[in-house]
Specification:
This protein is 42% helix and 23% strand. By secondary structure, it is α/β, with parallel strands linked by helices.
Length: 300
């Protein structure tokens, strides 16, 4: 037995080396790109408060951004790249899918809705947020639903689900539509009186209001029935199961462990930068149920 011990050790060592080498060679898709370049490229939003936005110091912060950075940590560990470089590319609702498809970005955790149409072009993670689409208007404006927009001007962000809904109702109801590049631009049209309402994802509406000084924020209210119920997810490349598994493992662990709920409370029930306003947006029962049973699902 003693004579066989050394050869067995050599065989075991060789097998381990082969397994490691084979594992490295088997990397595909985004993980291979990251391993080969030593870089992971994040797509970030500049004004999707409080999901992904730029603070006064020029740093990207927010609920979704913290999730993205957790995923980055997992990639560092899985690929044994402690010095992995992280780059950030500002994206918009209009160019985010193209930037994912052409390889400019590897991961985007911001405020992107998982839809069936988009899933034909890119991949999506487990859901990270559930919400409805509503409107923000000046307090006392009389705007309560889409029908109250008749003969008036409304704004939304181009390339979003809200944009699709409004474009489909524009002729039927009879309102003018302003399509802006960023959410902050859409809300600005209401502040300036160029539109009576800004239609967008409900949490983003609360985020735009939270960016105002407290006294000014009182002059705006989120109104209307739920125009559509949807969800946000992290966006990645289509048909990339290895990277998707890394991303989904992180999200599922955060949701089941209670870490995601703490993150939610941090960004939606406590004061947030830049104005230290509290969004006062408590978690819904649907969101809490989702955290208990993480899923990848489109809602349209």
């Amino acid at each position: 037995m003693k004579k066989l011990f050394a050869p067995l050790l050599l065989v075991s060592a060789a097998a381990a080396l082969f397994a490691h080498t084979a594992s490295a060679q088997e990397l595909t898709g985004t993980l291979k790109k990251i391993k080969d370049t030593g870089v992971i490229a994040l797509g970030v939003r500049e004004s999707s408060i409080p999901f992904s936005y730029t603070d006064n110091a020029g740093k990207t912060i927010g609920y979704s951004q913290e999730i993205a950075l957790k995923i980055v940590d997992a990639v560092k560990k899985d690929l044994n790249l402690p010095n992995l470089k992280v780059t950030e590319t500002p994206i918009t609702s209009q160019n985010r899918i193209a930037l994912m498809q052409n390889g400019t970005i590897d991961l985007e955790c911001g405020s992107t809705t998982h839809t069936f149409e988009r899933a034909k072009q890119v991949g999506f993670s487990h859901n990270i947020f559930l919400y409805s689409i509503k409107m923000i208007a000046k307090s006392g404006s009389g705007i309560t639903d889409l029908n109250s927009l008749k003969g008036k001007t409304v704004a939304t962000t181009a390339g979003t689900t809200a944009d699709r809904i409004l474009s489909g109702k524009k002729g039927e109801i009879g309102f003018n539509l302003i399509q802006t590049k960023e959410h902050s631009d859409g809300f600005l049209t209401v502040k300036q009186g160029r539109a009576v309402a800004f239609v967008m994802d409900e949490p983003l509406l609360y985020g735009q209001r939270a960016a105002l000084p407290a006294d000014e924020a009182k002059g705006y209210e989120v109104v209307g029935p739920n125009l559509q119920f949807e969800n946000y997810a992290c966006m990645l490349r289509k048909d990339d199961p290895a990277f998707t598994k890394v991303v989904n493992t992180v999200i599922a662990d955060m949701e089941k462990s209670g870490e995601m709920e703490k993150l939610y409370n941090k960004w939606f029930t406590q004061p947030v930068p830049p104005k230290n306003q509290n969004m006062n947006y408590p978690m819904t029962p649907e969101m809490r149920a989702m955290f208990k049973d993480p899923i990848t699902k489109a809602y349209d």
